[in-house]
Amino acid sequence: MINNDVLRAIRYMLDLSDAKVAQLVNLADPTVELEREQVQAYLKKEGESGYEECSNQVLVLFLDGLVVQRRGRDESQPPRPPEKRVTNNVVLKKLRVAFELKDVDMHQILESAGMPVSKPELSALFRQSDHKNFKLCGDQLLRNFLKGLTMRVRG
């Protein structure tokens, strides 16, 4: 899925302002400062004037900031290095951590969005990429997960 679409969907789901999006990125890495105009450029639709592609680094920092904001920072652990490559699986994992979702919650969310997934299919999405049962998360699955999570969060 396109990084901008993920950012847009999460922003809508949580009803975040442009300043809050920038603040979440800064929460994950205080050295990165996003301007309001830059956030607005990321949130525009492709083809609109002023549209900018959201980089993998910005999306990962935004998701990490979301995890820190919702769950707090674990000071006993050293900070994890941000992922270089963002896949749908990484987005799914970070959202699962941020919203403290269990397998049952994940199944309910996907089912409410009209895309039921079996237990083995779901666990395959969260395996290491070199595991023999690893499965790539497709755009449709992530889109439906975001839709179901939005229904759950916004009511």
Structural description of this entry:
The protein has 155 residues and is an all-alpha fold. Helix content is 59%, strand content 0%. The protein contains 8 helices and no strands. It has helices spanning 3-14, 18-28, 36-43, 56-71, 88-98, 103-112, 119-125, 139-154. The protein starts with a helix and ends with a helix.
Describe the structure concisely:
The protein is mostly helical and about 160 residues long.
* Major sheet: none
Compute the number of helices.
Answer: 8
SSE ordering: HHHHHHHH
Mean pLDDT: 92
Low-confidence stretches: none
What is the terminal separation in angstroms? 24 Å
Report strand %: under 5%
Shape: globular
Structural category: mainly alpha
Q: Total strand count, please? A: 0
Rg over CA atoms: 16 Å
The portion of residues assigned to helices is: 55-70%
Secondary-structure map:
Elements: H1 3-14, H2 18-28, H3 36-43, H4 56-71, H5 88-98, H6 103-112, H7 119-125, H8 139-154
Defining key terms:
8 helices, single chain, 155 residues
